[in-house]
Design goal:
The protein is α+β, with helices and mostly antiparallel strands and 77 residues long. 68% of the residues lie in helices and 13% in strands. The chain has two helices and two strands; from the N terminus they run E-E-H-H. It has a two-stranded antiparallel sheet. The longest helix has 43 residues. The chain starts with a strand and ends in a 6-residue tail after the last helix.
Length: 77
């Protein structure tokens, strides 16, 4: 934790989480940049999979609805 002073706001305390601090001390900058990029890519992929699953669900639901509407509802003449 470090403290600095701003004339308008007063003392500013900066807190760094332990994991971030340990990773910056023990690894070289390129390694943790790669790790951050890998994490971001993984998050983006899982979000895309989630969107794909939702769209498949809606397509299936629409298909079932069309099937029910076409074959199981008697039309009035």
């Amino acid at each position: 934790m470090s403290t600095s002073y701003d004339k308008k706001q007063g003392p500013i305390v900066q807190v760094v989480c332990g994991r971030c601090l340990s990773s910056t001390r023990t690894r070289r900058p390129m390694e943790w940049k790669r790790e951050i990029a890998r994490s971001a890519l993984s998050l983006a992929r899982s979000a895309q999979v989630e969107r794909n699953n939702e769209s498949c669900f809606f397509v299936r639901a629409a298909g079932v609805h069309r099937f029910i509407k076409r074959y199981h509802v008697k039309k009035r003449h």
